[in-house]
Specification:
- The complex is a heterodimer of chains A (about 170) and B (about 325).
- Chain A has about 170 residues and is mainly α.
- Chain A is built from 6 helices and no strands.
- Chain A has helices spanning about 5-20, 25-45, 50-70, 80-95, 105-125, 135-155.
- The longest helix of chain A has 25 residues, at about 135-155.
- Chain B has about 325 residues and is α+β, with helices and mostly antiparallel strands.
- Chain B has helices at about 5-15, 70-80, 125-145, 165-180, 185-195, 240-245, 260-275, 280-305, 315, 320-330, and strands at about 20-30, 35-45, 50-60, 90-95, 105-110, 205, 215-220, 225, 235.
- In chain B, strands 1-2-3-5-4 form a 5-stranded antiparallel β-sheet, with helices on both faces. In chain B, strands 6-9 form a two-stranded antiparallel ribbon. A two-stranded antiparallel ribbon of chain B has the order 7-8.
- The chains are: A mainly alpha (about 170), B alpha+beta (about 325).
Amino acid sequence: MHPDIGDLIHGIKRTLTEEILPALNSGFAREQLGYTLFLCEHMAARWDHAHIYMAQEHGDLRATLAAALDVGRRCRAPSASLSALLDTTAVTLATEETGGPRPLRALSAANAELKAALVRLLGACEDTASVDQDVLTEMRRTLRGFMTRQLSRDEEWVSTAQIGWW
Amino acid sequence: MDMTEQLASYLRAQMPAARDVVVTELERKSGGASRETWAFTARWAENGHAVSREFILRRDPTRSLLESDRAREFRVLQALYDSGIPVPRMYWLELEGKWLERPFFIMEKLPGQAPVGTFPAGYPPAMQARVAEQFVDILARIHSLDWRAHAFEFLGVPALGTDTARNQVGHWRRIYLQECIEPHPILEEAFIWLSAHLPVADRITLVHGDYRSGNYLFTDDGTITAMLDWEMVHLGDPMEDLGWACMKFWSGRGLVVGLTTRADFLTRYTRAGGIPVDAARVFFYEVLGTVKMAVIALTGVRTFCDGKTHEASMPLVGFLVPRLLRDLMEQLEL
């Protein structure tokens, strides 16, 4: 259907650039408009990839948590808290909706929940009293693998322009 | 009443001897993540003489990247004026919204430009070196200041040992938990690392808290005229300012805050102030600084997503988060 979101963003950008910007006298207002145009540029470049990006993150989170669970189950003497955490994570993965398309924000919320589960497992890897240090090290490595891949995706996502601090 | 007239009314109330007060050239300036910055000129007659003076107004925004106490900053700057540390003269502090809707303070406008990132091109290397020397020397002076003689105890005096680092980590962790929209595993890892590596402070000094490029003014003859942005000032470990300034995030062309090499920066600092540099503590505060910047950026994102700001740069600071997380991955070898 047209105008699609990309058409609309380009239209907004043209109006701001051609009609609004020349009418502004204040340096501060022009600067604010510059930021807004930058955001339009980013949205135009990314809007139709947003769902793919989020779905990739989701798939990676699920795969990482499943792999971390497999590793964690190999603990010979897991603490009660680690056992409970592994069980909770397994339940989260089993009950989390996977079938059918979802609105972007629902997918984003699901990813946030899975990231929280990942963070809890990361914390459990710090149990220095555990006799299963080798297993915890492998679990940490598995979880860090997601962090590395996700960072690369995030860098790609914001690569529409280089910006700096004030 | 427009803001120019509001300001003129305010000045009339503050300067009863002034006659015919007018405010002109009121202009909002860019930057300033935590407060709005406005420049203006005021003219008045006093004792038969015409006076014209330039001021800077810093007003609380509707919502900030950094919630800071403007009274604290005002008080510190007032005490530092004439201390040998270049700061603007502070004039008035208003904590109520009676005059300009929100709290604000007014200070002297000093000459100079604030370089961002690298030192600006077009200046001779000797001048860059001169600015670099002053940048380091002023920091050494801040850390050598007798903070008790200036009655800075109101900033909160941490104990020697790990207290100051623990306080800082706890403070930024609380902000992170409060402001982040979703968990950030790399930041969580960094907090774990920080808590496990708290350094021992062997002295407590005044800490600027945001000592970097963008926060000093220099003139064309290579003189630093002011150190600005004292919102994060506190008492703590002097290595904190060194770590913050040495962060990769502030570096330009591989130089500390775009001015000088890391080795020169640290060597000159020790020479200027006599405080030995502890590399491990500096590194700890570099990591903490990177975490802080990521948390500040996430606060901007949250503020924008919650609709609490009109400032169009707020969502953009979120674009900096991956760069900061990459720095953390490298620092901590994750």
